[in-house]
Amino acid sequence: MKETYIKEFTEIAPNNPVLIEGLPGLGLVGKIALRYLIKTLKPKKIAYLYSPHFPYFVLVNKKGNVRLLRGSFYYYQNTKGQDIILFTGDSQSQTIEGQYEITDAMLSFSEKHGVKTIATIGGYRMEPKEKPKVYIAATNQDILQKALDAGATLSTSGSPIVGTAGLILGLAKFKRIEAICLLGETCGYLPDPQAAKAVLEVLKDTFNFDLDLKDLDEEITKAETMVSKLQAIEEKRAIQAEETRKQDDKKTTYIS
Prior knowledge:
CATH class of the largest domain: Alpha Beta
Number of domains: 2
Helix content: 25-40%
Order of helices and strands: EEHEEEEEHEEHEHEHH
Shape: globular
Structural class: alpha/beta
Largest sheet: 9 strands, mixed
Number of helices: 6
CATH topology of the largest domain: Rossmann fold
CATH superfamily of the largest domain: PAC-like subunit
CATH architecture of the largest domain: 3-Layer(aba) Sandwich
Number of strands: 11
Distance between the termini: 68 Å
């Protein structure tokens, strides 16, 4: 394999579709959001994206079978509005060239299927004080305003959006496609379903489609429990370190 390519195995005729992208990144916000959309909407898998720029290993399933890392496209026929194409994957590209190449392949796929708008999802490194905020940036003022009306916050001027989520916004105009990026506040070092839920709340209102988010609450509870356990371990470690320091201070060292 010398370059990125997309293998389509199902033909579709979507109605004015929007493409929603979410890959692994800070807090796995994009990955969790797309996984939940796939679980809830039950879309049809329509294509795989393969690239030599993904990490160089294979995944092994329970039966011992292996496969290359890949991206997957799904199609959801929305009876109440725009159809939806979803894209997620096992990994982002590990090279700068690959980021551009994969993004270009995705945009060509979008253009082929009549996509006029793309929404990308990711994490925004920030320790949320309460409910995570959702920061947005877009190539079109109308869609930007819809997201603001849905409760999003305008992204800080000069803030870089790294990876596929950002490159899509920069390259989409060459395909005459509008794009918006939604970034959920996350500390970034653990999977963050709370940030993913905040993003999905804005996303569904921006594009007017039904989505029940209650099943994410169980994941959020598990994540909060994990954070509490890690904090308890860190507090215990800090106490032990302080006790060790005090014991060391009591010792007298003679140098002759």
